[in-house]
From TrEMBL:
This is DUF7452 domain-containing protein. Residues 30-114, 181-291 form the DUF7452 domain. It comes from Luteolibacter rhizosphaerae. InterPro entries: DUF7452. Keywords: Signal. The keyword Signal applies.
Amino acid sequence: MKTKSLIQAALRGGIASLAITLLALGSPAQAASPKALQFTSSVVNTAGSTMTLDHPLLNGKPKLNLILTQRLGPGVVYNNHPVGVQYDPANGRWQIRNEDVAAIPAGACFNVLIPASSKRVGTTVDSVWDNVTTFTYQFNKPNALLLATHIVNPVLNFPGNLLPRNIGTYYTGTGSTYPLYYNKWSVYTEDGGDLPVVGFNIADVSKTKIGGVANSFVFTTTAGNTSANQGIINNSVTNDKPNAVVFVTHVYGFGSSTYQDTPLGVWYSGGTWRIFTQDTSAMPANRAFVVSSYPLTP
């Protein structure tokens, strides 16, 4: 489904690509302050489509709501696949998954955030005609800055579902005939495909500060700040900070009502951070992203 109005198409009665009732799944663990980590895949920590993380801030903590963004490291290894996280209760370790079960290549790099303000939410489907998902987290706050990551097994000891699709967020507003879904944030699939019963980690970074300075903002691509498969971010929060740990989520709306159906990543070059498409397709203008930047946690 590719339509000019995502919200209207999602709510007018047909099978849609979106999320509609996202329910909170328990009381997740919260970090006193955000922690930002980096990991690189290798033959030691990766088996097929699964990469196992080993860090004292993560190990044995299944209730963390991890946020994930791919990063292009010095080895310049692309991983052109939708990614998510899962918890392995047998080993007490968090893992990164290629959701389409493709093997994670050695040298692929990932940023992992333990956010300070977050929730774990899951979809419910009322019928095949009503599979749009919204969640009440940040209800009536259209300007909230949210990061989203799919979690394969949101309920411990259940295998969960893979989601081999790229996702984004959007705010429903009041532009439909279904008041139940007014003014709520949602997760949707960028390719228009249906959502199964799945879970998401949602982090609110609207008020997060590092050293007293807001560390999150909305970046919108234009003809002037795109080059090849990159959107070049020009912001004091990220400029000249090669060691920053940067996270991004595509957001439909914020003046940019367009899809972005490609796996994304971030990389640093020439004094600026860039958002890039993992499939090397041209980065279009008029794409909005929530960007959040952190110092690396020792």
